[in-house]
Fold each of these.
Amino acid sequence: MNSHHNGHKTLSPQPYVWSEPPLGEAKSLPPAFYTDPAIFKAEMEHIHLKNWFFAGRVDEVAKRGDYRTFDTVGGPALLIRGDDGVLRAFANVCRHRSSTLLEGCGTARRIICPYHAWSYRLDGTLAGAPNMSEVPNFDPSHSSHKLAEIRMEIWEGAIFLDYDDTAPSLAEHLGNLPDLLGSHRFGEMVCTWRTEIETRCNWKMLLENAMETYHTGIVHAATIGAQRSVSFPTVGEWQSFQVLSTQSIAVLKDKPPFPAIEGLSEQSKQGTHFTLIHPTTQFASAQDCIWWLAVRPVAVDHSILSIGGCFPRSYTEQPDFPQLAAPYYKRWEAVAREDVGILEKQQRGLSSRLARPGQLCWRDDMILAMNRWVVGRLPAHIVEGVFE
């Protein structure tokens, strides 16, 4: 484990990765961090609108005119591939009086506002504005009439957006994550399934839960059962652990129908990597597939959980792929719904006047790391004394 890749040292697993305060003194965040609208508002301003978040896969908008719409922390958004073959991200908002433009996903030759029929080319420039020719000084080519573009970068087929044009690049944000996951060759995969689940819980709870195996033998006793994991020190705005298993855990208790991805690193052959790309994106990378959990905060106790799955293209070209892939979809949704069920109980518990921070276990190492990342980006008056 001493080789180097892309200038980074290969990551080595550890039983757990701990940071201050010492094990035995560390506690969970105060309940207000999950229930106070003022803290949620600060998180939106200082975290969600200033960092990269996952928006989908390039293969979902692969052809000219293909588009996908979705809601984000910054409002309605639109991914669309232009006539020039370039993929762009826009606010899904008309520049006239701010109606949303497209709905769902599909293919378009023009983007036409359903309110007053202003129309846009696929590169976002204004194509037509009825009755505006009589308006003095109206210049349809002016940049103020072009759809508002959202900063976008792509890593291995994964699309990320950021509303802060001054934020570090996606490559800086990811740090050495590509060194750990590179052998999965995400960019050669195809998205074959996605769903969304509305949840009545704080956004952090969904990701905290996704980054520990402490609960799996209890909450998931009837599905995936207890799991054993190791953790990884990381460089960049992400954290990771690996559930150890000699075969894919992306199905329930059946034997995985697909072989391991060709060319996987020795470490990746040992199990499934669960990574949190701060603040809201998890990629789970098994020996035969990847799946994601992406969280969109809506309110302090309301979040949308997006789940999707990808396979190597060669697997998807098999004639019986739909039947072979069905157990993966069943597992991904079943486990997610089990998690949502327990987290909604936790959210109710956190509203108790007697709720207090609880002492963390060594198996909560990723929880502590995530909490410290969040707290480190909020104003001092909000977080004063949290880790004392």
Note: The first strand starts at residue 4 and ends at 5.
Amino acid sequence: MKSTLTKITTRYVETDQMGIIHHSNYLIYMEQARLEWLDTLGFSYKRMEENKVLLPVYQIDIKYKNPMKFGEEITVKTTLKKPPTTRVEFEYEIVNQDGVICATADLTLVFTNALNFRPMKPLPDFLKACELLFDGR
């Protein structure tokens, strides 16, 4: 389960004046998909925050390829690129209901101690679960 697929139906409120999904909403779709990826792995942001772990965005690179419109059902593929260190890296592919790639992205988050805001290693059980995904590659 290095990858998960999340289905989302775009909403009218997410469109811009041209009737196209505004580019800022792609980040929201990716976050929703990442939360579902974590849930599938058996973790949650809430659980990490309870353990004083934050995951701020360090870097994101989005390539917008084709527009999305109101009412389309999109699928966000979320993939863990490699076992995490102090950073965790995901790649995304967003396609519409016709299978057309609308965007791709690479995202890096940094495990951060909520008490002092310093980088830290992932929680041991999270790291182990991620490493198991790469066994046997």
Note: The mean pLDDT is 94.
